[in-house]
Specification:
Two copies of one chain form a homodimer. The first copy, chain A, is mostly helical and 197 residues long. Chain A folds into two domains: 2-46, Orthogonal Bundle (Arc Repressor Mutant, subunit A); 50-189, Tetracycline Repressor, domain 2, CATH 1.10.357. Chain A has ten helices and no strands. Chain A has helices at 2-15, 22-29, 33-40, 45-48, 52-63, 70-88, 90-102, 104-129, 133-159, 168-189. In chain A, helix 6 (70-88) packs across helix 7 and helix 8 runs antiparallel to helix 9 (133-159). The longest helix of chain A has 27 residues, at 133-159. Chains A and B meet through helix 6, helix 8, helix 9 and helix 10 of A and helix 6, helix 8, helix 9 and helix 10 of B. The first copy, chain A, binds a DNA duplex (30 and 30 nucleotides) through helix 3.
DNA sequence: ATGCCTTGTGCAAGTGACTCTCAGTTCCCT
DNA sequence: AGGGAACTGAGAGTCACTTGCACAAGGCAT
């Protein structure tokens, strides 16, 4: 399975996503097309599939029952995964990100994956903390938005020659600071009848 | 064009998204399949296409140069559009939402659309306010996350028989309050779990 | 009027992603 | 040994989507 994905990514790097058919992937990986579909479902799946979804969910789940503030749980969980994903595995991750950003169909599939992960996480959070599910969705969506923005900002800087790259941690930190300031503004500007500044 | 979409949605309602081919849509709308593709690009496009994207962008743009706090601009713009979309146009909107939530391929296309709209909005914001683009992305992503959560919460309540529906405004307001509280928590717990640096 | 360009539309053929069904193989459990 | 679950492959079919071309209608200049 991992072997199939690796072969596929190599072919995509070599010839471009659109110029490679599933059949060619199957042949190069020495399996049948059926097998590719069985494991990855779609061609885009060959790019976006990874283990990090479940690991992130597990990392969050592990921390939730402890009564730890959920924000801290999220940040710890993200930091735990990010190091490996964005630093150690930097090369492959960049390649997959690049394919994703340059091909709308892959980007769409990725976005769907994120939405589904968010939904699962929100349920988990609501269950563990006795929160209303609607509330939990807002929390997860906000945090996920900040995280994803960090990922996008990281990628775009990394991909652009005139910007010198920084560690992913810094992008993550910036994004969360930004989230905090938006939150603060919301708090002030909330509904009519707010006090002037 | 509008005629084609209406016909398509009627067919989807009647027979289900998967049981309707583009050819059938074309025939029912008395155009050729080529025309359908020319206007909507994909089958999913028949569901997700609408005018609200551009209108939202315009509503934001119109407010930005005024020096109005960007959050207020966002809320006003959203409120301006939401009324029509979720109250007046409630029936069709529900139907399209239902198709979207029940068909991963449509959901993916919708998510992509949101991502692209966010990107455009972030650029607009950065330009109008002289913000760093990365910063602008965080702001837009946070606000969009809250908005979308409101939409999802609204839809799920609306679709569920045992919950009695509230006005969309209330979901929107709840979501933004939730966003504020997340922001506040971030502010306190700051700095992504790093001991060094 | 004649030509000309743009714009909108239809036609037709081709590609390849994806589905479904059935049949073989391996491996494990009793 | 036997029976069944899990994995894999073969083959045929559907249909979304692309591409290139031709054809018509309307404006605009010559």
């Amino acid at each position: 399975m991992h072997q199939i994905q690796t072969t596929a990514l190599a072919l995509f790097a070599e010839r471009g996503f659109d110029q490679v058919t599933i059949e060619q992937v199957a042949e190069a990986a020495e399996v049948s097309p059926s097998t590719v579909y069985r494991y990855f479902g779609t061609k885009e799946g060959l790019v976006i599939h990874d283990e990090y979804d479940d690991r992130l969910l597990a990392a969050v789940e592990q921390r939730l029952p402890s009564g730890m503030p959920m924000l801290q749980a999220a940040l710890e969980a993200l930091a735990e995964i990010s190091d490996e994903h964005f630093e150690l595995d930097r090369g492959p991750t960049m390649h997959r990100m690049r394919l994703t950003m340059e091909h709308p169909s892959i980007q769409a599939a990725g976005a769907l994956k994120v939405a589904q992960l968010s939904a699962r996480t929100a349920e988990q959070l609501a269950r563990a903390r006795g929160m209303a599910i609607g509330q939990a969705r807002v929390v997860v969506a906000s945090l996920m938005a900040a995280f994803l923005t960090a990922v996008v900002n990281w990628y775009l800087d990394e991909a652009s020659p005139e910007v010198e790259p920084r560690d992913f941690d810094e992008y993550l930190s910036d994004a969360f600071v930004g989230l905090a300031s938006v939150g603060a503004e919301v708090r002030m500007g909330d509904d009519p009848g707010r006090s002037d500044r």
